[in-house]
Structure formats: C-alpha cells, structure tokens
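Just scan this pair:

***
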Amino acid sequence: MKSFIERENEIFSILGSFNKAKLSYVLIGGYAVSAYMRRFSVDADVCIEKKDLKAFREVLKEKRYGLIKRMDLGNSYDGEFKCYTKKENLSVTVDLLINSVASRQTGGSISFSRIFENSKVMGIKGIEKEVKARIPAKEALIAMKIHSARMLMQGT
C-alpha cells in the first residue's frame, strides 16, 4: 500500500509543478476520473499543445524524469506521444499526448482545444495529498475512454 501512496504523491507533485510553471494541460485517464470518484492509476496521462512541449520537458527534467521509448501502448493511442519516467524509489510515468488524443482503431482524434473547451479546473483528493488540475467533463472522459477502445475500468 505504501508504494501506491508514494506513486500517487509523486504524480500529484509533478502536476503541482506543472501548475506552478503555469503550463496549460488537461489531465485525462485514471487520475482525471479521481476528480469525480476515487480511482487509482499507475501513471498520469496529460494532453498538451505542441507549443508547450519544451516547457513540459524542462519541468520533467528538473524533477528527474527521463524520456523513454514506450513499447506497451497496445493499440490504444496514436498521434504524437511522449513518455517520461522517474525511476528512483519506484517507477512513476507521465504520458504526454501532444495536440490530441487519437485512436489507432478508429483513426479518429479529439483535439487538445476540444478537450480543453470541455474541461474545468477541479480538485483531486488522494490518500495523503490533493492537487488541482484541468479535468474533462464526465461525458468527455467517457467519450475518450470509448474512443480509445479500452474497457472503462480496466487498469491503465
């Protein structure tokens, strides 16, 4: 249980660092669901605009995250995607989906601007900490999960 809490705390910390740097992003995936109901996830899925990629890289580098080539995407996402991980006490991953969330199965995509327009800043409460992040509306989260052709509550 301790490792789950440490991972969650680290993810909340990096989201807080993005906020402190005034970066524009929308949190999607498991931690976004946590704004509505408690849900643990193993990584942070963050949709960003390409123009902000350098600033995100700088924050991630400062926090000792490194870019990795991720091979376990399955067939979920297409489009530009960068995976950063921090491997110290435990492995923590931040996935950057750049300009859109795209599906390999359908070939369709949802643009960052569309996701941003259908989101708002919300609080996410963890076991020990909390953080604010821009979160898609419930309906948009469901649509993105269906769009990615993955089971709604399957582990991410």
In short: The chain has one domain: 2-147. Strands lie at 25-28, 43-48, 66-68, 78-87, 91-102, 109-111, 119-125, 130-136.
